[in-house]
């Protein structure tokens, strides 16, 4: 790996031992690792808005699966006393534009488009997820077919948006798609009547419901 090659851990099979072993094999020959060792800490991008994966607790500490992976990689490079600096990284574009971020550990779907065109290098798969729908209980919706003709919100430019159209076409359902900007207030979108359903990764939906 060259000095400019950086890693994004695709959090999409829970294989921590394999992840650690493969990451160590990759990084030991990297100029990036030399820079990390000289600096004395790992700079890791996370998105601290998904419970169970990355949040900032009441004491200002980063907690969750994503952040623990950052710490594991730091230990592999720097040893038991490794330090990690966490950087809030909402988008792939932000990561690619920030040369000081060594890697990103977050729920990021591994796709040919993301890796092939951007030069992003994905690490080993660490978690499998799936796409689902969240709807208000008062609507009594229990099947996708009942969403035909209803306002379905989805994050603009996300894999969830890419998947939504084909699913509705396959099932011959009428799709009324509403695009939301990344980071939009989902609760407010429901309250104001903009959304009758919201689709995203199931882990993301669970995080919203438990917030």
Describe this structure in words.
The protein has eight helices and eleven strands. The protein has 211 residues and is α/β, with parallel strands linked by helices. The protein folds into two domains: 7-122, D-Maltodextrin-Binding Protein, domain 2, CATH 3.40.190.10; 131-210, D-Maltodextrin-Binding Protein, domain 2, CATH 3.40.190. The strands form three sheets. It has a five-stranded parallel sheet. A four-stranded mixed sheet has the order 8-11-9-10. Helix 1 (16-27) crosses helix 3 (65-78).
Which range does the strand content fall in?
Answer: 15-25%
Outline the low-pLDDT stretches.
1-6, 8-28
Total E-strand runs: 11
Radius of gyration: 19 Å
CATH fold-level label of the largest domain: D-Maltodextrin-Binding Protein, domain 2
Helix- and strand-based class?
Answer: alpha/beta
N- to C-terminal separation? Answer: 39 Å
The second-level CATH architecture of the largest domain is 3-Layer(aba) Sandwich
Biggest sheet details: 5 strands, parallel
Element-by-element helix/strand order: EHHEEEHEHEHEEEHEHEH
Mean pLDDT: 83
- What's the number of helices? 8
CATH class of the largest domain: Alpha Beta
Number of domains: 2
CATH superfamily of the largest domain: Periplasmic binding protein-like II
Shape: elongated
Helix content: 25-40%
**Adjacency order of strands in the biggest sheet:** 5-2-6-1-7
